[in-house]
Amino acid sequence: MTQPLYTGQVRTVGESMARSTTEAQAFKIFMDEPVELGGSNGAPSPLDFVLAAHAGCLNYMTFYIARELGIPVTGTEITVQGSLNPAKFAGTNANVRAGYQSLTATIHVRGSATPEQLLHLQREIETRCPVSDNLAHPTPVHLSLRVAG
User: Residue 100's beta-bridge partner residues?
Assistant: First the structure.
């Protein structure tokens, strides 16, 4: 078995039920929840960051693959929208999924690419974006819970 080329790791400290601070490399990321979920709406929610991570990865892959294929792309504007039924995490319906039930991403590309080039670019992005892959396919998650010492 080969070693992975990249291993990501973050460290999060919870300050309350809704507010946390995450260290990712040399950066700090603040998360909170809306008031109706017990937060103070002082920062994006973890679910907002899922959407943001997807949009950021789609942006990177659009430029990366366009350059690789010689497709003229000078900019992007990306919207990612998620639909979520909060019943499972609220404990009111165990039969629905806890996470987003669906995601819709739209990439507006600036440049002079032809429709055929855009279709080729879209196919490549769909199959090569790591965040899309993590969201679309099961990724094993191993969770442990311990008392802090």
Answer: 84
22 beta partners: 12, 29
How many Cβ atoms are within 10 Å of 63's Cβ, its own excluded? 16
Torsion of Cα atoms, 87 then 88 then 93 then 95, to 10°:
130
Q: Is 110 helix (H, G, I), strand (E, B) or coil?
A: strand
Phi, psi of 14 (to 5 degrees): -85, 125
Tokens of 64: 């990366």
Distance between CA atoms of residues 87 and 36, nearest Å: 14
pLDDT tens digit at each of 149 positions of the chain:
677 788 899 999 999 999 999 999 999 999 999 998 889 999 999 999 999 999 999 999 999 999 999 999 999 999 999 999 989 988 999 999 999 999 999 999 999 999 999 999 999 999 999 999 999 999 999 999 999 87
